[in-house]
Structure to design on (130 residues):
């Protein structure tokens, strides 16, 4: 089964609602800071919080990412974690994560087997490396 067969983004923004936060790499910090026109230091100071000594994108009081405003305002440079959704390694560790994530994501099919999920996630992760 292909990734496109089990997921079709509805642009609802539910994946932009926290759930542990979105880590950003140094490269991603640079790309986002450049995109919004601020220095990397100011970006981290203003738009991030820290967890396990790594920067996470800050969240608004409603739980949404600070960059969600009816749509992703940093879409061209959004972090790998966001670009990968919902094809994440946690699903390969425990395919039940797919069904849990689907509770808040209307674009994720749940009428598929765990084997089909593993197959699609594996394909998506493999193609993301290329």
């Amino acid at each position: 089964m292909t990734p496109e067969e089990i997921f079709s983004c509805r642009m609802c923004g539910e994946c932009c609602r926290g759930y542990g936060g979105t880590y950003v790499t140094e490269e991603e910090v640079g790309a986002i800071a450049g995109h919004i026109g601020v220095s990397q230091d100011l970006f981290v100071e203003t738009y991030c919080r820290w967890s396990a000594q790594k920067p996470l994108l800050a969240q608004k009081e409603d739980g949404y990412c600070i960059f969600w405003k009816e749509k992703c305002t940093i879409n061209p440079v959004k972090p790998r974690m966001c670009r990968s959704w919902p094809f994440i390694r946690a699903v390969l560790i425990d395919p039940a994560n797919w069904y849990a994530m689907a509770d808040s994501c209307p674009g994720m099919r749940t009428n598929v087997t765990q084997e089909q999920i593993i197959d699609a996630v594996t394909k998506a992760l493999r193609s993301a490396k290329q």
